[in-house]
Amino acid sequence: MVSRKRLDYGFNGFHVPFIPKGPRSARRRGLFKKANEDDEACAFELLALAGMLLQESESSASSNASEGNHRPAFSQGVIEQEKLDEVKPKITDNILLGSFGESQLRTEVAMQNCTQKSVPDANAADCVQQFISADNNSDCRGKAGAAVKSEICEWDNKFQHYSNRLVEAPENFRESCDVNINNGFGQEKEANNSGFQGSNSADRSSVKNQLELNMSPLIDSNSNAKSPLYRNSFPLASYSKHGNGNKLGIRDDDEKFLRCNKVCTKSKTFRSPQRIAHRRIRKHLFSKHWKVAPNLKDWELSRSDMGAQPHYRKRKICHSFERSEHKARVKRRKFFDRVSRVTSDGGFSSESVSNSPEKGMNMDNPKDPHVKFSIKTIRIPELYIEVPETATIGSLKSTIMETVMTILGGGAHVGVLLQGKKVRDDNRTLVQTGISCKENLDNLSFVLEPSSLLDSGAACVGDPSSQCETSQPAGSPETPVIDSEITDTLHESSLLTNPVNPVESNHDSTSSPTDPTLDKETPDCRALVVVPASTDALAVVPVSQKSKRSECAQRRTRRPFSVTEVEALVQAVEELGTGRWRDVKLRAFENADHRTYVDLKDKWKTLVHTAKISPQQRRGEPVPQELLDRVLAAHAYWSQHQAKQNGGKTLKITETSAERPSIEAAVVQSQSLVMV
DNA sequence: CTTAGGG
DNA sequence: CCCTAAG
C-alpha cells in the first residue's frame, strides 16, 4: 500500500511514504494526481534558519531595493519565479553550495559588526546595509543563483535582526529564563531545581541574557539525493568550516504531501500559475514536520562544539519555552519582547548576581559562584524544504517562515550540550555537571529543540535516536530555534482581503513584507514541507519508518484568529450572510491562504458560541464585546433571513440596508470601532 | 467544490 | 481544526 501511495504522489519516492488513514485515502488520491506536477520540485535545504518572524520592512527592503515598488503582484510573482528558475539548475549542480557558504561567511561578518553596536534595531538595519554592500548586491542578482543568494542574505539579515531583538530581553523573559543558573550553581540543594528550568526569579536584574542567533542558511544540492531519514550523509563539512556545525534537519514527509494535494485541488479562485504554484508549495510545505521531531533530537546530540563555542563564555542564559500548544504563541511573543530588552540594559554586572552562595570555586572570580553564559549563536536545525521550481522567492521565504513558525508554535526546549554531549539530567547542578569550569563553558552549547520531540513526534517516527544518530554521524545539527510570533500580527492585516484597518493599505512596497503584492504570494507558500532531497532516498528508507511517519499526519498548526481577522470575518458575514463561506473567504480572506472557508465557517460558529457565553467562560485572545455583539446581530439576522429565503424562495440580499436593519446598525457601530 | 454539522 | 455527508 505504501508503495502505491507513493506512486500516486508522483514524487518518485523522494519523500517519506505517506500512510493514509483509511477513509481519507480515497479523497486524497484524487488530489495527489496534481502532485505529479511537483515532480520537478527542487529541494532546498536551508541550514540555519533563525528566528525570523515577520517580514519586516528592513528585510524586504534589501530584496526589493533594486526592483520597482508596487509592482502588481502577478508580475512580481512571475519575476520571482524566473529568478527561482534560474537558480534551480545551479542547485542541481551543487553550485549553490558555494554561494551559500559565501553568504554565510558574509553574514557572519556582518553580524559581528552588528553585534558590536548597542541598539538592536539599528543593528539590524546596519547589518542589512553592510551585508548588502559587502555582498555586492548587484552581483548576486545578475547571475544565476544570485537571486537565491541574495535571498539567503536577506534571511540572514532577518535573522540577525531578530536575534538582535532577542538580545533585548524584557523582564518577563528574563524572569523565566534566568533563575537556576544562579541558584543551582554550587549548591547541592538545588537538586530540586531542574537544570535551567528553575522557577526562581532571583536576581533577575543581575543576569544578563545574551542571545545571539547566528543564522547560516545553506543549500546543499547533495542533500537532495538523500532521503529525509538519511540525513547522515548531509554534508556538514561545508558548514563546519564556518564554525556552524549545528543543523536541524526537519523533514516533513507525508504530511506535506497530503496538505499539498488537498490544497491544490481546492479553490478555483487561485487559478493563475502563480497561485497554483503557491498552492503546491503550500501543500508541500505544510508544517506537519514537527511531528517528526524525533529527528530534531538527533540534532542536539550532534556537535556541540561548533565554531561558536568560543563565544560561549560567561553570562547566564536563560530560556524557557513553553510547550503547551495552546500557549505557544503567546509565549513566543513574550519571549521576543523580553529578549529585546536585554540589550538595552546595557551591561548588568555579574556582581549584582553574586550575592548568592559563597562557594567560589569558579573560574576567574572565586567570589562569584555564578556562571555566566553568553550565547553567541544558536544553531538552527537543518531544514529540508522542497518547493516547486516555479515557486517564487517570496513563497520560499514564506515557506521557511512557516516552518520556523511551526517549530516555534510547537514549543521549543533548550538542550544543553557540554563538549558535544547532551546533558540530559535536568536535576544536576552546573557544578555537578562541570559547567562551572571555564574550560567547559567554552564547550558548552545550547540547542533549541522542538518540543514535539518529546511528544507525539517520537511516537510517530519511531525510534528517534536510532534514526537520528545513525543518520548523522558527522555531527548533528543542533536546533536552536528562535521564536517569533510576530508574524501573524504583522501580516495579519495584509492577509485580509479587506482589512478593517485602513492603515493597512499603506504598505510600503519597498520594504514592508506586508506589502500586498508580496503577501499575495506568501500566504500560499506558508506551509513548509521538509522533504527528502532526492528520489533515491526513498528507496533507501526502511519501510517501517516510512509507515510510521505517514501515520503521524499532523493536523494543521493552530492559528487563532486575531481580532483583526475576526473583524474582517464579521464584516464579511454581515454583508454576505452565513452560508456563503466561499464568498466570505474570497471577500475577506482571499490572501489569507491559511484560512479556508471551512475555517471561516468554523470560526463563525465559535464566535457565535463565544458571544453567547459569559465573558468569564471565554478563552483565548479576548474578542471585543462590540464584535461579539455584531456577531450575534448578524447571526440572528441571517438566521431569520435564511428562513425567509427558504420560505419565499431565494431573495438575494443585496446591500440594502432596509432589509437588514440590525446589520446596518452593526456596521455603523463597527466603523466607530478602533481596530488594533 | 461547497455547505453544513458533528466530532 | 478535522472529517463527512450531501448537494
TrEMBL record:
Pfam families: Ubiquitin_TPR1
Top-rank lineage group of the source organism: Eukaryota
Subcellular location: Nucleus
Coarse class of the protein's main subcellular location: nucleus
Biased composition (Polar residues): 192-207, 346-357, 464-474, 496-515
All copies of domain Myb-like, residue ranges: 553-608
Ranges where the record places region Disordered: 188-207, 346-368, 460-482, 496-520
SMART domains associated with the record: SANT
Domain HTH myb-type: 553-612
Keyword list, A-Z: DNA-binding, Nucleus
PANTHER family, sorted: TELOMERE-BINDING PROTEIN, PUTATIVE-RELATED, TELOMERIC REPEAT BINDING PROTEIN
Descriptive protein name: Telomere repeat-binding protein 3
Organism the protein comes from: Stylosanthes scabra
